[in-house]
Design brief:
about 280 residues; alpha/beta; Alpha-Beta Plaits; Rossmann fold; 7-stranded mixed sheet; 4-stranded antiparallel sheet; 7 helices; about 25% helix
Length: about 280
C-alpha cells in the first residue's frame, strides 16, 4: 500500500455538529476510505484510481443551506497509512457492554470485546449507524439464529452476532477492501461461524435467515428490501440503518409493501436505525 496514490480533501465545516458526522457518512458511501476529524472540520482520503472530478456530486450535505462547508483537495502519496490511521483510532464502548477497539488498545472489562484492525473499511462503531446497530444486537436474541450482515464493512456486526450466540452468519460487502478486511477481522476475533462474501444482494438467492442486518444507504436499501424479504424467515427480524430521521416514512412505506411491521426505532444525531418483524 505504500505506493498507493491518494487524493486528500480538506473540509472546513460550520457548525461542526452534526455536519461532520453526516459528511463523513456520505463521503464513505461515495468511495472515500478514511477520515481524520480536525478542529475546523474533517480530512477525507480516496484512492486516486477511484477518484473522478464529479466525486462530490451526490454528497447532499454540500448542497444544504443549514451548513457552511468549503474544501480544497490535492494529490498525496501515502507512505505510512496505517501509522496515521492508528493515531486517530479511538476505542468505543457501547452501553457499557461492548467495546470496539484496535489491537493496540488495552483489553477492556466489558462483556463483549471486538478487535478491529484500524484500516479503511467503513464500520468501526464510531459512526452513529454502526453504534445503533450494535445496540440492536445487544438488545435482541441471537442465540442459534441464522444471520445476514449485508454491507458488512469491517465485519463488526457479524462478529458481535456470533458473540451473541448466532449459529451461522453470512457477511457480504460489494467493496473488495471491506471483503478482505472482514476476513481479517473474523479471523482476528476467532470467529467460527461467519462466512464472508464479496458481492451484492444477488448472492441472496435460495438463502434463508432469522435475522438480517443492513447498514447501507437509503437508496440501496429501498432497492434491496424486496430481496431481503424473500430470504427472511417468518417472524424474522430485519434491522435497517444508514439513513436520516426524515427518511423513515419512505423506508417504512417500502417495508409495508411486504407486510413488515416496524417494532422499534433508535435515533442518534438525526441518524436512525429501525427494527422490523416479518
Amino acid at each position: 500500500m505504500s505506493n498507493t496514490i491518494y487524493i486528500g480533501y480538506y473540509f472546513t465545516v460550520e457548525p461542526l455538529v452534526p455536519a461532520v458526522e453526516i459528511l463523513i457518512a456520505e463521503l464513505g458511501y461515495g468511495g472515500f476510505e478514511s477520515f481524520v476529524e480536525t478542529e475546523n472540520g474533517v480530512t477525507a482520503y480516496i484512492q486516486k484510481e477511484e477518484w473522478n472530478s464529479d466525486i462530490l456530486e451526490d454528497v447532499q450535505i454540500l448542497k444544504s443551506d443549514e451548513f457552511k462547508i468549503s474544501y480544497i483537495f490535492n494529490e498525496i502519496e501515502q507512505t505510512n497509512w496505517n501509522e496515521e490511521w492508528e493515531k486517530n483510532f479511538q476505542l468505543i464502548v457501547v452501553d457499557d457492554v461492548c467495546t470496539v477497539r484496535a489491537p493496540f488498545h488495552d483489553v477492556p472489562k466489558t462483556k463483549y470485546d471486538i478487535i478491529i484492525e484500524p484500516k479503511m473499511s467503513f464500520g468501526t462503531g464510531h459512526h452513529e449507524t454502526t453504534h445503533m446497530m450494535i445496540q440492536h444486537i445487544l438488545n435482541n436474541d441471537f442465540l442459534n439464529k441464522s444471520v445476514l450482515d449485508m454491507g458488512c464493512g469491517t465485519g463488526v456486526l457479524a462478529i458481535l452476532a456470533e458473540m451473541k450466540g448466532a449459529a451461522k452468519i453470512d457477511a457480504i460487502d460489494i467493496d473488495n477492501w471491506c471483503y478482505l478486511n472482514s476476513l481479517e477481522n473474523v479471523q482476528r476475533n476467532n470467529c467460527k461461524h461467519i462466512s464472508v462474501y464479496e458481492g451484492d444482494a444477488s448472492l441472496l438467492k435460495e438463502k434463508a435467515y432469522d435475522v438480517i442486518i443492513a447498514n447501507i444507504n437509503r437508496n440501496i436499501l429501498l432497492a434491496d428490501i424486496s430481496k431481503y424479504v424473500t430470504c427472511l424467515k417468518k417472524e424474522g427480524l430485519l434491522f435497517l440503518s444508514g439513513f436520516y430521521n426524515n427518511d423513515i416514512p419512505i423506508i417504512e412505506e417500502e417495508c409495508s409493501k411486504y407486510r413488515l411491521k416496524l417494532k422499534e426505532s433508535l435515533e442518534k444525531n438525526n441518524w436512525v436505525s429501525l427494527k422490523f418483524i416479518n
